């Protein structure tokens, strides 16, 4: 099953705000959705890596999709991750998120054991046969230890199994091969998951971008997309460089005490908290929280990017965050 036309534009992988007790904070989630919609994004991707889907219970995953689809009420397409280790488990997630209102599902290759391309093909064919909505492949070898080969993706596109691909592999040459081959498959969407080379991916012919940093600055990525589509190379380069500088906030966490995911997701949530979008910046366990000093560094990145202070485009004012971190 495919979309009638390629999915295009900026599709943020939406963060999942949590309460201090690590339950889904639905009011904050809906404020975040409003922040993204006001920023001009073209669709929403729930339950991806930036959403901390791997850390949520099945009930929390369904809660997120139900809350957002009811709130959006068809204004924008809502995609949902159906991400798990095996085909039967993914099929259960597909049933749950589509029942909750998702209009497409985003699916990785199977993981835990390393998978052969033939097994990956069977996985996607089985899921597409059972799914009532289009299936988008999620190419993220850092998480699943398997790169989706371009010929595999394009073959499944040609057979109508896949409606698109979100490429978070970092392999620009392979991405180019998919973009070039996708021209033969109308309706197939090629989306980059990179915050840092969005302009380059769009110049190659990508249909859109799925940047986690768009949670923090949706206006910036929508502006970048429009500049690229208008052919304003200099304007797009300047906006991309501003966003690259802002992306530095993902590295505020001390690598001696936390991993890159704790640092990046903690920084995204700290930024959203500082901008007044979400009530609590806590991340899911077992991720390590940012320190107060690290949060201050996030604030400095926001200020430098024009997202705090008199020139802010944010949804609210700076919150008092002294008692919200490290829980």
CATH superfamily of one domain: Aldolase class I
Strand order within the widest sheet? 1-8-7-6-5-4-3-2
Number of helices: 12
H and E string: EHEHEHEHEHHEHEHEHHHH
From the 3D structure, determine the CATH topology of one domain: TIM Barrel
Strand-residue proportion? 5-15%
Mean pLDDT: 93
Question: Overall 3D geometry?
Answer: globular
The class by helix and strand makeup works out as alpha/beta
Return the CATH class of one domain. Answer: Alpha Beta
Number of beta-strand segments: 8
CATH-scheme architecture of one domain? Alpha-Beta Barrel
* Biggest sheet details: 8 strands, parallel
**Rg over CA atoms:** 19 Å
Terminal residue distance: 44 Å
Percentage of residues in helical conformation: 40-55%
Low-confidence stretches: 310-327
Task: Give an overview in words.
- The protein has 327 residues and is α/β, with parallel strands linked by helices.
- It has a domain of 228 residues: TIM Barrel (Alpha-Beta Barrel), CATH 3.20.20.
- Helices cover 43% and strands 9% of the residues.
- It has 12 helices and 8 strands.
- It has an 8-stranded parallel sheet with strand order 1-8-7-6-5-4-3-2.
- Helix 8 packs parallel to helix 9 and helix 9 runs antiparallel to helix 10.
- The longest helix has 15 residues.
- The chain is globular and about 50 Å long.
- The termini are far apart.
- 51% of the residues are buried.
């Amino acid at each position: 099953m495919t979309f009638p036309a390629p999915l295009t534009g900026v599709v943020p992988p939406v963060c999942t705000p949590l309460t201090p007790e690590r339950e889904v904070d639905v009011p904050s989630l809906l404020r975040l959705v409003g922040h993204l919609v006001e920023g001009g994004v073209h669709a929403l991707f729930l339950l991806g890596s930036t959403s901390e889907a791997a850390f949520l219970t099945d009930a929390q995953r369904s809660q997120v999709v139900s809350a957002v689809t009811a709130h959006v009420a068809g204004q924008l397409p809502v995609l949902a991750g159906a991400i798990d280790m095996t085909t039967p488990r993914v099929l259960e997630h597909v049933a749950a998120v589509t029942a909750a209102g998702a209009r497409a599902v985003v699916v990785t290759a199977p993981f835990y054991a390393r998978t052969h391309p033939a097994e990956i093909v069977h996985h996607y064919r089985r899921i597409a046969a059972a799914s009532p909505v289009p299936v988008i492949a999620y190419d993220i070898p850092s998480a699943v230890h398997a790169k989706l080969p371009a010929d595999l993706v394009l073959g499944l596109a040609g057979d109508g199994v896949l409606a698109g691909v979100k490429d978070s592999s970092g392999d620009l040459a392979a991405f180019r091969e998919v973009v070039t081959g996708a021209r033969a498959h109308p309706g197939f969407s090629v989306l980059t998951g990179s915050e840092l080379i969005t302009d380059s991916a769009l110049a190659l012919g990508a249909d859109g971008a799925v940047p986690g940093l768009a949670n923090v600055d949706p206006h910036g990525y929508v502006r970048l997309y429009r500049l690229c589509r208008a052919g304003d190379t200099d304007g797009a380069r300047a906006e991309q460089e501003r966003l690259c500088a802002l992306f530095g906030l993902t590295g505020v966490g001390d690598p001696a005490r936390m991993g890159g995911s704790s640092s990046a997701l903690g920084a995204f949530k700290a930024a959203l908290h500082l901008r007044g979008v979400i009530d609590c910046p806590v991340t899911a366990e077992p991720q390590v929280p940012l320190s107060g000093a690290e949060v201050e560094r996030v604030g400095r990145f926001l200020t430098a990017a024009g997202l705090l202070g008199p020139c802010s485009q944010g949804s609210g004012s700076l919150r008092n965050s002294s008692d919200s971190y490290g829980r």
